[in-house]
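Students often ask why we bother encoding 3D structure as a string. The short answer is that it lets us treat folding as translation between two languages. Here is a chain of 206 residues written in the first language.
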Amino acid sequence: MFEPVVATLITSMARTVTGARSLWLGCAPVPVQRIYFANHSSHGDFVLLWASLPQNLRKFTRPVAGSDYWNTSALRRYIINRVFNGVLIDRERKDPVDNPLQPMLNALEGGDSLIIFPEGTRNLEDGLLPFKSGLYHLAKSYPQAELVPVWIANLNRVMPKGRVLPLPLLCTTSFGAPLQLEEGEDKAAFLARTRDALLALAPEHS
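And here it is in the second language, the structure alphabet:
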């Protein structure tokens, strides 16, 4: 009942603190099923990306997040499950027979779009870490969804580690052109191509 109000408060705060701008450089904000894949430098990345989408797209766009982090408190569980309708995955893969991609595939098959971070962990340096293989397997298993690179700029500088109050820096989310797995393309080539497409959206590469 209160979740839409909480979501509005969180997105409004994210926009106010960051002065967020959405730059739709290679695609338009239209209601088609997508996998938005972005760089990862802060726990607030998915909040800012989600807040950057028009409201009609936010309704069926779900952030993918690690259950090991979001299940550690009742507040985190409420935010990720009830407010953002997130897709929680087991990054530690306690049972080797489980497919860690299955929750994401279930969401896609249900008609939702996803927000994922293919580096797999936060990167506090410039540039990008090598991509994990999950993006490739999602693209192979569910080719119907467009793969849209999104570069999140400056969020790690707005609230650097150890700082209590945010710095007044402008953040941008730059949405690139949709990609798809090409016929016969192997995993290494695909991951290199998608990583290059994301890195090309970074301000220093523009």
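Translate back mentally: The mean pLDDT is 84. Keep this in mind for the problem set.
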